[in-house]
Amino acid sequence: MTKQDVRKEGLEKIKSDLLLVMSSFKSMLISLGEKEVAQRLPWVNDEQKIKPYQGSDEKLAQAICTSFEILNLVEENAATQFRRKMETQFGLEAIRGSWGETLSNWKAQGLDQREIAALLPTIRVMPVLTAHPTEAKRVTILSIHRELYMLLVKNENPTWSTLEKQVLQQELEALLERWWRTGEV
User: Fold this and answer.
1) Which residue, 144, 138, 142, is CA-closest to 172?
2) What's the CA gap between 91 and 111, in Å, rounded?
3) What is the pTM for the complete model shown?
């Protein structure tokens, strides 16, 4: 498998996980009587067939915001899996911007271990933690995000039986309903 194959696999994972979660979100909204909102969700509806919206702008805004949060969580999960696979198959130096890549580049430039060891104390590394009021999340929402992430990881198990997959689908819809009812917007 090449690096390009791993990248392609990562993009396919985003597509399939997004379809799984968004289909569950749509199904959950329909089960709650929010069919009009469900018909306007991105990525799971034919945009050409969407009719003018007659419902609550607040509910539609909540659904759209939740959809983009779902996309973000799906991408984070896929990125983690991508990094793990790249590291496993191609080594630490395959991860762009990593220490593994930096050390590999120095070695390729002809630096030996002593020279690299001499450089390390001169490097200043500072973590930068940023917070922005628009990024603040309630603890209950963060908990739901973590649970969704874990369900995506759980879904990666290829040996689930049909019954186990159905249970996973029910867990996903129940989680999405909790998220919807809790409200984030």
Assistant:
1) 144
2) 19
3) 0.83
